[in-house]
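REQUEST
  id: r-88c1
  op: predict_structure
  target: Ribosomal protein L11 methyltransferase
  payload:
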Amino acid sequence: MDLVKVSVKTSHEAVDAVSNILMEQGATGVQIDDRNDYEVLKREANWDQYELGDSRTDYNLNEAQVSAYFKDKIDVDNVVKKVKNKVGSLNQFGLDPGPNLVSVKSVKDEDWATSWEKYYHPERVTRFLTVVPSWEDYDIKNSDELMVRLDPGMAFGTGTHPTTKLAMQALEMTIRGDEIMLDVGTGSGVLSIAARELGAGTINAYDVDDVAVKSAEKNIALNPGMQEIHVMVNNLLDGINIKADIVVANILAEIIIPLIPQAEKCLNNGGIFITSGIIADKLDEVIATLKKHHFKINQVLTMRDWRAVIAEKVSEEN
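RESPONSE
  id: r-88c1
  status: 200
  body:
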């Protein structure tokens, strides 16, 4: 199956918001080409040996390009119109939309799955967790370092996006050992693998997309000691009656909101609900819905324009 690549040339400050807009339209995955980020990496990590393609140098340091990949059956004209309108309105939220130039290109799925590999390298995401591409040799640097091997393929979730980093940080802050966990919208499976590395017990991981489920299964097999992770196709927590200690969901706020009553049903009293993928202007709505469904907000984590919430289920009597 071929894919449609929709690219938006925007400002550096609007990258997260534009990524969110594209994912709202049903993107299979996103790619961010931000020259400012590459310049910082080159200075701080001596990355001069990594060649930047021409497509990454045709905009200045104040601009970036966000590309999204869609299944080829989408109404491209409608998606482009919606994206352009939403990006153009970002100035209402104090963000510079930049040039707001939208382009469309047809891409072979196998090209998408491999073209970004030379830009994806081991990254220490949290204090303990390092995400390592499956094709890279890597030696643990510290005795407390935990390695997550990953080949994300077509699924969204390399461990390097702010929403995934926030979710991994929240898991690191929450897991004490042997918890039953539900991972909703597992994508590449990175959060389930990270949770097992941190000591979680049985994990059930769900995704509505069978491509993501296959990707997660492949990644789980790359990491030892993952036998307690079970992956299956499911729409959110529909029909799931497991009582869990932790529910984690790194998905968009619009999907988190209908998930909240399902998470309330599946969590034990005192259980933790970790939500990430929340753009800043959606945070209040998510928190209000959590409180309505007997969740206490323990902490809000922030990275750029993204938010993650650690909430605790309390009994109705409280």
